[in-house]
Amino acid sequence: MGAGHQRARTTVTAAAGGSAAAPAEKPVCAIIDRAEDLAAAGRLHDVATLLRPALAQLSGHAVTAEALDAAVLYAHALTGTGHPAVAAAWAGWAHTRSHRHRDRGPGHPTTIRALGVAAAALLADHRPRQSAARYRNLVAALTTTSGPAGGLRLGDRILLLSDLDAPW
């Protein structure tokens, strides 16, 4: 999302500036922006380190849209740093919550991104059948939100779906 997107100003305790050294009060949107910059630079371990304290404070009832963004990014980082089982759990949680969230919903980019991250994490965790189901759902979601010509190109969809039908 980067600094160009505006988010509500929710404050959580998290590491400042991308290191876990000194906790400081920062708005979660600033934490997410920093984590996205780190992810773009390929520093996935730093992304996980930055987001972990913020996500540890989530309550089960009042989950903000920003927390969902952070959970998806955290799951992406965990997948890339060799923790796909935990990543799949976070991405699945974020997908379910985002799908039902009053400010999000089934076609929201965060919901769709969470589904894609969950599929990738499940595949990395050697759970191809569960991953294939998520990828099928992802293709369906992209088709619904973008139409047949949007999201994935038709040829990409055919290749993906044919790979999903391959014997595991």
Structure description:
- The chain has 168 residues and is mainly alpha-helical.
- It has one domain (11-164): Serine Threonine Protein Phosphatase 5, Tetratricopeptide repeat (Alpha Horseshoe), CATH 1.25.40.
- It is built from seven helices and two strands; from the N terminus they run E-E-H-H-H-H-H-H-H.
- It has a two-stranded antiparallel sheet with strand order 1-2.
- A hairpin with a 7-residue loop joins strand 1 (11-15) and strand 2 (23-27).
- The chain is globular.
- Mean pLDDT is 78; it is low at 1-25.
- Briefly note the structural class of the backbone: mainly alpha
Note the beta-strand portion. 5-15%
Strand-and-helix sequence, N→C? EEHHHHHHH
If helices are DSSP runs of H or I spanning 4 or more residues, what is the number of helices? 7
- First-residue to last-residue Cα separation: 35 Å
Average pLDDT metric: 78
Counted beta strands = 2
What best-fitting shape do the alpha-carbon axes yield?
globular
Largest sheet: 2 strands, antiparallel
DSSP helix fraction: 55-70%
Given as residue ranges, the uncertain stretches (5+ residues, pLDDT < 50) are: 1-25
